[in-house]
Amino acid sequence: MELAQIFQAVEETHLLKRLSSQGRLFFVGDLAALEYIKNFFSNYQPANLNYYYDLSTNQLKNLNQTVSDFQLYQAVVVVSLEDEATLFQAVKEQVSQCDSEVIVLSLFADIFINLLCHRSLLTAIPIHSQRPQKSYAIVTTPRSGSTYLCELLDSTKIAGHPTEHLRLAAQELSRYCNFNYLKLLNNLMEYRITDNGVFGTKFISHFLFELQQTKPDFRQIFQSIDQFILLIRKDKVAQAVSLVLAQKTDVWHLRHDTKNPNYQSKLENIKIDSVLLDNVAQKYDFIVKQEARLKQLLAKHQIEPFEIIYEDILAAPQLQINRILDFLAIAKPDPDLMQINSGIKRMPSGISQEIIRQFEQRKSIVC
What we know:
The protein has helices at residues 3-10, 15-19, 31-41, 63-66, 84-96, 107-116, 146-155, 168-176, 181-191, 205-211, 219-224, 236-249, 261-268, 274-300, 310-315, 317-327, 350-366, and strands at residues 25-29, 51-54, 75-79, 103-106, 134-140, 198-204, 227-232, 254-255, 306-309, 344-345. By secondary structure, the chain is an alpha/beta fold.
């Protein structure tokens, strides 16, 4: 994968945008990566106060001769898409010879993890992480209502902060840059918990399966997490249509507190034809197969997940959240003190209903 594609995947987390606000950073790495970062920062920084030590033209052993005082910088940031860990150790050794107290950090193994853990960006990652009192993961297929469910659970204030932590950025870094996604998961399990020590996360099927192809040992995910919840959407046709419309409009969620005036116009420009209906059929088959693979994967690891139905959550959200909390054995406060809510709006539309109607009609004719 090209360097730009990797950074674009990472930037869904806004890593570089957040880092650009820091200033006075000493970057060490290869020319292409440093040039990308430098160009990106130029859009956000009025003056470039960073230093970029290019290892394609400079030797690492000369690092100390280049910098008169590392204390001028907030941190030394190691950037490598190929072997960040090895370069980090070498840079740290060079900096230590200067009797400097400046912190040395890896862009991905430290700063990226800090970002997802809601920690200060320029902070060293602890060597050992603490396990939460309880951990769980929601596993599901795309467009199953998982974001809605996660927000309901988060609003209880006793069920962790479940969201999709290991998605595109972690996937691509693991595939192409030897990123240790288990280190990220372990740190999330320490820092992204509610006051009662509960951690929650979410795995969307295709990202989970991609992690199977990477290092470290994929089985450790299932050894790290205590309990699993399998979210199912019964209406697979509606789920497939939702996926098609989200990809066509690039609008994946609507929120009560945010207006999206262009969404309706994007829907109106969608033409319902055989090509679109074929796309729905492909997405339908994809979702069915992904769900089957999820069930097989859980069975392979001898996991019996708690199964929850999206349509049941819509019909009785409080009841279903209580069922999940009971499954997780999380002590609940007085019912009057736990008001669940979500900012997610449902996205049914006239065109989605019409696509479903035409798809079902075509399917009945074929049958």
